[in-house]
Amino acid sequence: MKSEREYIKSRNKPKITEIKNFGNISVYGIDAKADDVLAVLKSIHKKLLKNIEIVYYGNVGLEDGKTGLCSGEMLYLSDKYPEQLQKTILHELCHSLEKTLRSDIEDRDELKKEFLGKRRQLFTALYDAGYQNLRKEWFDTVSFDKTFDDLLFDNIGTEIVSQYTQKIFPTPYSCSSLNEYVACGFELYFSNGKTLLKSCPELLRYNQEIEKAKF
Prior knowledge:
alpha/beta
């Protein structure tokens, strides 16, 4: 099976139509306007950009429905969803910071406890709704599992999962793993969506600390 980065390479023959720079970051527009990305980057605190060197924006070969991808020091951003560009950039920036923040996330027992508690609530809600082929142990881990992710969002379906996550998680996809929970919370916190984190006090506290932190 191809990795996401290999998938992009196999699908995309880039036609770079525009190159812009923002500090140490090079932004390549691929049949798209690099200025769209620059406008967002200028609104983001520089410390959150520290691990990014290159941004590809436009026809980057992402799978249908996928808005962005972080791979090492590079961001790949689709131009198909311009209304989501700010949130997509913030979400992928959080993934770019995972190496910097990993030990901190792993040491936060209360954050893990909050996430797993929500996962178990989701299991109960889906099980009670008739999805009784689900196994509880699938919901008792903080790690990403593609098989489990496909079961939720492909087999059960995003629309149905969204109905059951809306009162539990800040976004549907934040139930996928602890890292996605953190990334979705980061995206909301730094894009004026803090109110959606009221039911996630540990996630809110974590982002408040990132906002104040020096790294």
